[in-house]
Write a structure and sequence with these properties.
Shape: globular
Low-confidence stretches: none
Number of helices: 6
Distance between the termini: 14 Å
Strand content: 15-25%
Number of strands: 6
Radius of gyration: 15 Å
Strand order of the largest sheet: 2-1-3-6-4-5
């Protein structure tokens, strides 16, 4: 019973840089570790694509971003995981846009079910988004991982309120718990 968590970015690739100097790579790693804790407490084995601030590209890589994402896909695909969750944070040109949202591969019925369960748990626990789970294309990891899974965007680092919340330990705990509950709800319904 293994779950694979993928905290996006890492190392030189900080991902989105939000308000107040917050970087995506730090937020998503903190939340991923909290999700890991909840899953381990429930008796699951958990693997992470990274558990510190580094990328997965080889030392001599000439295209670190590309090689990093290829390695993430290879790690998840070669595992015997029940499912995977890739965790990210969003950014947008307008600071008014906010809300966590879950994305899934359009061709994956089970991925859609998982994404919908996580999205509903996020809506119920955080009570600050009305977004719905949505299919997505042209995301290398989503398109190329052959396991059931989804991508969770924790919120918008470009939104002043959400950028502050995502730096707070208590809020990170709540969103991690929502992701965990969504996973458990999906597994119970399968």
């Amino acid at each position: 019973k293994t779950m694979y968590l993928d905290p996006g970015h890492g190392g030189a690739d900080g991902g989105a840089k939000g308000l107040y100097g917050v970087t995506e790579k730090d937020i998503v790693l903190a939340v991923s570790k909290k999700v890991e804790f909840y899953l381990r407490q429930a008796g699951y084995n958990v693997e992470l694509t990274r558990n510190s601030d580094y990328d997965l590209a080889d030392e001599n890589s000439e295209n670190r971003k590309r090689d990093d994402i290829y390695k993430r896909v290879a790690l998840i695909n070669s595992s015997k995981c029940l499912l995977y969750i890739s965790i990210h944070a969003n950014i947008y040109s307008s600071p008014r846009i906010y809300g966590a949202q879950v994305f899934y591969k359009a061709s994956s019925v089970e991925g859609q079910k998982l994404a919908e369960e996580i999205q509903e748990a996020i809506k119920a626990i955080l009570q600050n988004t009305n977004r719905f789970a949505k299919s997505i294309t042209d995301k290398y990891l989503i398109d190329n991982v052959d396991k059931v899974g989804c991508l969770v965007e924790l919120g918008f680092l470009s939104n002043p309120e959400e950028a502050k919340l995502l730096q707070e330990t208590f809020y990170q705990e709540r969103i991690a718990y929502a992701i965990y509950l969504g996973i458990i709800s999906y597994l119970n319904s399968s």
